[in-house]
Design goal:
The protein has nine helices and no strands. The chain has 257 residues and is mostly helical.
Length: 257
């Protein structure tokens, strides 16, 4: 009997050997059918030889096709990498603006301004914004060192912590915690659906950075024009400073996990 003239399948390495259902790959099933018909009709192979050969071709072909499909985990990881880069760029821009405002507040302090507590609070809020790029670097290292996906349990624990803080908060801090609660609830739904909630977390962090940039600009504008002997203007500056601090609190909370 002459050798079987079928072309060999491409070699499979350990990474390619993935179980695959041939029914999901019609071309693999077709190849198996061709092998079966050709083996029985044209070569005269017995059924007990032709059937396993056809099944092997269909299964092997499906495995090869599956190995060539984009890996969902790799795609998710690459998306997270891109989000981290965007986040880091935005954080560095915010840190530069915060450093500029911190120096302005320092100059006012050095002149012996009466509202020393307010200016110290501005400096403190700016310092936390300046540290955002470091926090994002730490988040990136944690993601690379472990599973990059957020679990439902992680998110539910975060939500419980936020709800506890919410119950004892008021004003602008309560509003920001309400927003954070909504964000975490959306992320939990994504995780339950099997989607990657980590990218949603990145979006939340990016939004916090943009909101911080807007508030920081408000503080800078007010600080340059405010009369620090006017109680109303002082209160407005203090409210903006508290808002910036609240946003930084939420950012720090989200990057814990």
């Amino acid at each position: 009997m002459s050798p079987c003239p079928f072309l060999p399948l491409p070699p499979l390495n350990s990474n390619m050997m993935k179980l695959a259902n041939p029914l999901y790959y019609p071309i693999a099933v077709l190849a198996g059918g061709v092998v079966l018909v050709a083996g029985v009709r044209f070569i005269g192979l017995p059924n007990f030889v032709a059937l396993p050969a056809a099944a092997a071709v269909a299964t092997g072909g499906a495995a090869v096709m599956k190995s060539r499909e984009p890996d969902a985990q790799k795609i998710a990881q690459q998306q997270i990498e891109n989000e981290l880069q965007t986040l880091q760029t935005s954080a560095k821009n915010l840190a530069e603006k915060a450093e500029s405002l911190r120096q302005e507040a320092n100059q006012l302090l050095s002149r012996g301004s009466f509202e020393m507590d307010l200016l110290v609070a501005v400096q403190g809020a700016c310092q936390r914004a300046i540290e955002l790029p470091i926090k994002i670097d730490e988040l990136g290292r944690r993601i690379h060192g472990a599973n990059s996906l957020l679990s439902v349990n992680d998110l539910q624990q975060q939500l419980q912590e936020v709800e506890i803080k919410r119950s004892s908060s008021s004003g602008i801090a309560r509003q920001h915690l309400d927003q954070l609660t909504n964000s975490l609830q959306r992320n939990i739904e994504l995780a339950k659906e099997g989607q990657n909630a980590r990218t949603a977390q990145m979006t939340s962090l990016y939004t916090l950075i943009q909101d911080s940039a807007g508030v920081l600009q408000q503080i800078q504008n007010k600080l340059r024009t405010a009369d620090l002997t006017d109680i109303q203007q002082i209160n407005e500056l203090q409210a903006s400073t508290d808002e910036l601090t609240s946003l930084q609190d939420n950012f720090a909370f989200l990057v814990k996990k």
